[in-house]
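Re: [ENG-882] Designed sequences occasionally contain unexpected residues at chain ends

Forwarding the minimal case from QA. C-alpha coordinates:
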Protein backbone atom coordinates (compact mmCIF):
# COMPACT_ATOMS: atom_id res chain seq x y z
CA UNK A 1 0.00 0.00 0.00
CA UNK A 2 1.43 3.40 -0.98
CA UNK A 3 1.49 6.48 1.22
CA UNK A 4 -1.43 8.00 -0.73
CA UNK A 5 -3.64 4.99 0.12
CA UNK A 6 -2.81 5.36 3.81
CA UNK A 7 -3.82 9.01 3.74
CA UNK A 8 -7.17 8.09 2.20
CA UNK A 9 -7.79 5.47 4.89
CA UNK A 10 -6.93 7.93 7.66
CA UNK A 11 -9.23 10.55 6.15
CA UNK A 12 -12.06 8.04 5.71
CA UNK A 13 -11.72 6.96 9.32
CA UNK A 14 -12.62 10.53 10.37
CA UNK A 15 -15.63 10.70 8.04
CA UNK A 16 -18.28 9.52 10.57
CA UNK A 17 -17.05 12.13 13.05
CA UNK A 18 -17.27 14.85 10.42
CA UNK A 19 -20.81 13.79 9.47
CA UNK A 20 -21.88 13.85 13.10
CA UNK A 21 -20.29 17.27 13.63
CA UNK A 22 -21.98 18.65 10.52
CA UNK A 23 -25.41 17.26 11.42
CA UNK A 24 -25.18 18.75 14.90
CA UNK A 25 -23.84 22.10 13.74
CA UNK A 26 -27.19 23.85 13.49
CA UNK A 27 -28.26 22.65 16.93
CA UNK A 28 -24.91 23.57 18.46
CA UNK A 29 -24.93 26.99 16.83
CA UNK A 30 -28.42 27.65 18.15
CA UNK A 31 -27.36 26.64 21.65
CA UNK A 32 -24.32 28.90 21.52
CA UNK A 33 -26.20 31.85 20.08
CA UNK A 34 -28.87 31.61 22.75
CA UNK A 35 -26.21 33.03 24.98
CA UNK A 36 -26.57 36.51 23.56
CA UNK A 37 -23.69 37.86 25.60
CA UNK A 38 -21.33 35.47 23.83
CA UNK A 39 -22.82 36.59 20.53
CA UNK A 40 -22.33 40.23 21.48
CA UNK A 41 -18.71 39.68 22.42
CA UNK A 42 -18.13 37.74 19.22
CA UNK A 43 -19.54 40.61 17.18
CA UNK A 44 -17.55 43.13 19.08
CA UNK A 45 -14.15 41.57 18.60
CA UNK A 46 -14.14 39.38 15.52
CA UNK A 47 -16.47 40.54 12.76
CA UNK A 48 -16.63 43.28 10.18
CA UNK A 49 -19.97 45.01 9.65
CA UNK A 50 -21.18 42.71 6.85
CA UNK A 51 -20.21 39.53 8.63
CA UNK A 52 -21.67 40.80 11.89
CA UNK A 53 -24.99 41.64 10.27
CA UNK A 54 -25.04 38.22 8.57
CA UNK A 55 -24.44 36.56 11.92
CA UNK A 56 -27.11 38.77 13.51
CA UNK A 57 -29.63 37.70 10.84
CA UNK A 58 -28.67 34.03 11.22
CA UNK A 59 -29.17 34.30 14.94
CA UNK A 60 -32.68 35.63 14.43
CA UNK A 61 -33.47 32.93 11.85
CA UNK A 62 -32.57 30.35 14.49
CA UNK A 63 -35.16 31.94 16.78
CA UNK A 64 -32.67 33.59 19.11
CA UNK A 65 -33.97 36.98 20.19
CA UNK A 66 -31.27 39.65 20.48
CA UNK A 67 -30.79 41.42 23.79
CA UNK A 68 -29.26 44.78 24.68
CA UNK A 69 -25.73 43.31 24.70
CA UNK A 70 -26.21 42.16 21.12
CA UNK A 71 -27.50 45.54 20.01
CA UNK A 72 -24.80 47.42 21.92
CA UNK A 73 -22.13 45.37 20.14
CA UNK A 74 -23.65 46.25 16.76
CA UNK A 75 -24.08 49.91 17.70
CA UNK A 76 -20.49 50.10 18.90
CA UNK A 77 -19.24 48.43 15.73
CA UNK A 78 -21.12 50.86 13.46
CA UNK A 79 -19.89 53.86 15.45
CA UNK A 80 -16.28 52.65 15.23
CA UNK A 81 -16.75 52.29 11.47
CA UNK A 82 -18.06 55.88 11.47
CA UNK A 83 -21.46 54.73 10.26
CA UNK A 84 -23.43 56.84 12.73
CA UNK A 85 -26.70 56.59 10.80
CA UNK A 86 -26.53 52.78 10.87
CA UNK A 87 -25.88 52.90 14.61
CA UNK A 88 -29.02 54.98 15.09
CA UNK A 89 -30.94 52.52 12.88
CA UNK A 90 -29.86 49.72 15.24
CA UNK A 91 -30.94 51.78 18.26
CA UNK A 92 -34.33 52.34 16.65
CA UNK A 93 -34.63 48.67 15.70
CA UNK A 94 -33.77 47.72 19.26
CA UNK A 95 -36.67 49.81 20.52
CA UNK A 96 -39.29 49.04 17.89
CA UNK A 97 -38.68 45.54 16.57
CA UNK A 98 -37.47 43.85 19.72
CA UNK A 99 -39.19 46.09 22.26
CA UNK A 100 -35.98 46.60 24.23
CA UNK A 101 -35.05 49.72 26.13
CA UNK A 102 -31.54 51.00 25.57
CA UNK A 103 -29.51 50.59 28.75
CA UNK A 104 -26.85 52.86 30.20
CA UNK A 105 -24.18 51.18 28.07
CA UNK A 106 -26.21 51.95 24.93
CA UNK A 107 -26.34 55.64 25.77
CA UNK A 108 -22.74 55.79 26.94
CA UNK A 109 -21.50 54.28 23.67
CA UNK A 110 -23.38 56.92 21.69
CA UNK A 111 -22.51 59.90 23.88
CA UNK A 112 -18.81 59.03 23.95
CA UNK A 113 -18.72 58.66 20.17
CA UNK A 114 -20.69 61.85 19.51
CA UNK A 115 -18.40 63.82 21.80
CA UNK A 116 -15.36 62.45 19.98
CA UNK A 117 -16.96 63.82 16.78
CA UNK A 118 -17.57 67.15 18.51
CA UNK A 119 -21.36 66.72 18.15
CA UNK A 120 -22.11 68.06 21.61
CA UNK A 121 -25.75 68.97 20.98
CA UNK A 122 -26.63 65.47 19.79
CA UNK A 123 -24.80 64.07 22.82
CA UNK A 124 -26.86 66.35 25.09
CA UNK A 125 -30.10 65.20 23.45
CA UNK A 126 -29.23 61.57 24.08
CA UNK A 127 -28.13 62.42 27.60
CA UNK A 128 -31.51 64.06 28.28
CA UNK A 129 -33.23 60.94 26.98
CA UNK A 130 -30.97 58.77 29.12
CA UNK A 131 -31.90 60.67 32.30
CA UNK A 132 -35.57 59.89 31.70
CA UNK A 133 -35.02 56.13 31.60
CA UNK A 134 -36.19 54.04 34.53
CA UNK A 135 -33.27 52.65 36.48
CA UNK A 136 -30.85 55.34 35.37
CA UNK A 137 -28.36 55.47 38.21
CA UNK A 138 -27.02 58.78 39.57
CA UNK A 139 -23.40 57.75 38.99
CA UNK A 140 -24.03 57.26 35.26
CA UNK A 141 -25.75 60.63 35.08
CA UNK A 142 -22.85 62.39 36.79
CA UNK A 143 -20.24 60.63 34.68
CA UNK A 144 -21.92 61.41 31.36
CA UNK A 145 -22.74 64.97 32.45
CA UNK A 146 -19.06 65.52 33.30
CA UNK A 147 -18.00 64.13 29.90
CA UNK A 148 -20.34 66.52 28.09
CA UNK A 149 -19.29 69.50 30.22
CA UNK A 150 -15.61 68.78 29.54
CA UNK A 151 -16.20 68.48 25.79
CA UNK A 152 -18.23 71.70 25.75
CA UNK A 153 -15.54 73.63 27.65
CA UNK A 154 -12.84 72.36 25.28
CA UNK A 155 -14.92 73.43 22.31
CA UNK A 156 -15.30 76.96 23.73
CA UNK A 157 -11.58 77.43 24.36
CA UNK A 158 -9.71 79.21 21.58
CA UNK A 159 -7.19 77.03 19.81
Amino acid sequence: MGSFDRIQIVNLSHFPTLIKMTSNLKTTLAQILKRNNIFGLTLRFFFSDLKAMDLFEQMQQLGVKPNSTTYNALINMFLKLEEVDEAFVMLDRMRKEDNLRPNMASYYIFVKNLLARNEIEKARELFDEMKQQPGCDPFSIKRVDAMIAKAASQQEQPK
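QA comment: On inspection the terminal residues look reasonable. Residues 15-33 form the longest helix (19 residues). Proposing we downgrade this to a documentation issue.
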